[in-house]
Amino acid sequence: IMKWLLLLSLVALSQCRVTKVSLKKGKSLRQNLKEHGLLEEFLKKHPYNLASKYFPSLANDYASEPLTNYMDIEYFGTISIGTPAQEFSVLFDTGSSNLWVPSVYCSSPACTNHNRFNPSDSSTYQDTSENVSIQYGTGSMTGILGYDTVQVGGIVDTNQIFGLSETEPGSFLYYSPFDGILGLAFPSISSSGATPVFDNMMNEGLVSQDLFSVYLSSGSFVMFGGIDSSYYSGNLNWIPLSAETYWEITMDSVTMNGQTIACSSGCQAIIDTGTSLLAGPSTGISNIESYIGASDGTISCSDMSSLPNIIFTINGIEFPVPASAYIIDQRGSFIDVPTSSGELWILGDVFIRQYYVVFDRANNQMGLAPVA
């Protein structure tokens, strides 16, 4: 009896995992375009509307979803799909919910210079008759949905639905440092109703806790099923979600040197690993840039040391972001969210680099603590 109990315990342990996926910080699309002398032309042709990710009705011909500020995205990790495994570099995006990768069915330039999934090389692939379409800046990612084994770190998810791209129009994906996207938001915003990867992990009992955590400082990673307290100082501050779509919370205010500069009556904020910068309504962003003396977004080197923190107060707790974080190459890391749907802020990587973030699906809450 003891032998069988031990075996059962080992089986349970093998199925319930905590796994850490290392994230690379590589060249951003902005850097790649600049090195190829294409940045200025690209920006003229493809103006950017961040609001389209969160409010599709506001999308214009150039709006994109789900790559938000794709120009500066730098964090991506490796997963594998199929049997035997085919490896892909993906953006782990808490602001979208679909997993998709380029496929051999796609002949767009953006596919031909990235890893492409070949279903015929996988003995575990199952096709479907379903299509998937996600709008991008110069067209769309279109493709088909299929099922296969997806391995993320040490977790093997044997029946995961994912998108195989057939078209990827435009040039921005051509220069992106990752192959595809692994969305970590809620099923309610998943295109074609496809079950997100983390939902499948939870449903199959593949994670020891129904949460994942993100660390974007030195040695970046996303950890599925666990929290590593050695990467943060103090205690985690738990914040309830205000919606189960994106990782959306209610923010109390945005202040600098004790002066309220935005969100004076409370507002909504989304914590999004797929957005590089700090984004907010035009008035709030203008107030910040005016307060720090930015001219066309540029800051004088001599002013850097005297710039104040931006304080985001959430659930009664102050979360400061110092000038060393929000000024990059003498420019403020801010972008407008043009929306008529109330005051919305997107706390992207500029914010997340300062805090260890726990995305808790079991309790629909988020945990934040300063990085150690």
Describe the protein.
The protein has 372 residues and is α+β, with helices and mostly antiparallel strands. The chain folds into two domains: 20-206, Beta Barrel (Cathepsin D, subunit A, domain 1), CATH 2.40.70.10; 228-370, Acid Proteases (Cathepsin D, subunit A, domain 1). Helix content is 16%, strand content 37%. It is built from nine helices and 25 strands. The strands form four sheets. Strands 13, 14, 15, 16, 17, 18, 19, 22 and 23 form a nine-stranded mixed beta sheet that branches. A six-stranded antiparallel beta sheet has the order 1-11-10-24-25-12, with no helix packed on it. It is globular and about 60 Å long. GO terms for molecular function: aspartic-type endopeptidase activity. This is pepsin A.
Strand coverage percent: 35-45%
- Give the CATH H-level superfamily of the largest domain: Acid Proteases
Number of domains: 2
How many DSSP E strands? 25
- What is the average per-residue confidence, as pLDDT, rounded to a whole number? 83
Proportion of helical residues:
10-25%
CATH class wording of the largest domain: Mainly Beta
Low-pLDDT parts are 1-15, 46-52, 55-71
Oligomer: single chain
Biggest sheet, open or closed, and with what strands and sense?
A: 9 strands, mixed
CATH T-level topology of the largest domain: Cathepsin D, subunit A, domain 1
Helical stretch count?
9
Radius of gyration: 21 Å
CATH architecture level-2 label of the largest domain: Beta Barrel
Overall outline: globular
By secondary-structure content and strand pairing, the structural class works out as alpha+beta
In whole angstroms, the N-to-C terminal distance is: 46 Å
Pfam families: A1_Propeptide (PF07966), Asp (PF00026)
Protein name: pepsin A
GO biological process, one term: digestion
EC number: 3.4.23.1
